[in-house]
Write a structure and sequence with these properties.
Number of strands: 13
CATH architecture of the largest domain: 3-Layer(aba) Sandwich
Strand order of the largest sheet: 4-3-5-13-6
InterPro entries: LysR_HTH_N, LysR_subst-bd, WH-like_DNA-bd_sf, WH_DNA-bd_sf
Radius of gyration: 32 Å
Number of helices: 11
CATH class of the largest domain: Alpha Beta
Protein name: LysR family transcriptional regulator
Helix content: 40-55%
GO molecular function, one term: DNA-binding transcription factor activity
Strand content: 15-25%
CATH topology of the largest domain: D-Maltodextrin-Binding Protein, domain 2
Family: Belongs to the LysR transcriptional regulatory family.
Domain HTH lysR-type: 1-60
Length: 304
């Protein structure tokens, strides 16, 4: 005969109730059943667990040592039970997200807030990284979802166009170009300009448009992030053309922005690996992202 969970349950109930009668009541069973299971447990373990004094069961030193281990085991089982229930209720879980640093500063904060209000027990891990590491991690199925700014979907994944809006211009306060509600390419001729790094795909597209228009911008600073670009513009060092998400954040922070007469669409793709098992809360999080993306598109359409 081996020790069973039923033996442990009976032992624990007796320790809690202090009598066979009380233990039977706790377990919704009969007194003879409790007495029989206790005798079997003492036989299996070779321990003398209780002494009988005046109709009560008094635990021995061996029983007191054993109950400590039993309680630790039951705490573990109760945690597992609560965790299983929490998974069913979407109260626990973890989402792993990878994205460009830009999205961790603009799109994700408000989306995470909305999601957390509905699913407060779910933890979200965000890994911000640049291309090509971003795409490589998606190909390797290391994350539940990714956010990219290119239309190319990594192999082994499915993509969804989630956001699309035109690039915008950010300007220092009291800059002469603020007099115009919409800026033409020739407005930037011989104007001090803050540029993104030359390897940025949108910088390359801008360079092509300005080159074709015969416009020479005076690039005085190059930097790798839109946040850095906006900081330079805020210091009055020049104007810049940046992605609309960063432009919206800058505008809401008081930095003047203007539309361009030339449409240069900026797109955000939601990428989901096909081979990674989908979390139960993945779709609710994607929906929170879609709602926030639509809100940003509407804000940009109204103007800031």
């Amino acid at each position: 005969m081996k020790l069973s969970i039923r033996h442990i349950e009976v032992f624990r109930a007796i320790m809690a109730a202090g009598s066979v009668t009380g233990a039977a009541r706790l377990l919704f069973t009969s007194q003879p059943t409790v007495s029989r299971e206790l005798a079997r447990m003492e036989q299996v373990t070779g321990l003398n667990l209780f002494e009988r004094e005046g109709g009560r069961l008094v635990p021995t030193a061996q029983a007191l040592l054993l109950i400590e281990e039993v309680e630790r085991a039951f705490v573990g089982l109760e945690r597992i039970d609560r965790f299983a229930q929490a998974i069913r209720n979407f109260e626990q879980g973890r989402l792993a997200i990878t994205c460009l640093p830009l999205f961790s500063q603009t799109l994700l904060p408000k989306a995470c807030k909305a999601f957390h209000q509905q699913h407060p027990g779910v933890s979200v891990s965000i890994t911000a990284q640049e291309s090509p590491l971003l795409e490589e991690s998606l190909v390797a199925q290391q994350h539940d979802l990714g956010l990219t700014e290119t239309g190319q979907v990594p192999r082994g994944a499915v993509g969804e166009l989630m956001f699309s809006a035109d690039m915008v211009c950010v300007l220092p306060e009291q800059h002469p170009l603020l007099a115009k509600p919409v800026l033409e390419l020739h407005d930037f001729h011989e104007i001090d300009f803050i540029n993104l790094a030359s390897l940025d795909i949108y910088r390359q597209e801008l360079d092509r448009h300005f080159r074709e228009a015969g416009v020479n911008r005076r690039t005085i600073i190059e930097t790798t992030s839109a946040a850095s670009v906006c900081a330079m513009v805020r210091q009055g060092l020049g104007v810049a053309i940046i992605n609309p998400m960063s432009g919206l954040e800058a505008g809401q922070g008081g930095l003047p922005i203007r539309r361009l007469s030339l449409s240069i669409p900026y797109q955000v793709m939601l990428i989901r690996p096909e081979l990674r098992p989908a979390s139960a809360v993945l779709e609710p999080f994607c929906q929170a992202l879609r709602v926030q993306a639509r809100a940003m598109e509407r804000a940009l359409a109204r103007g800031v």
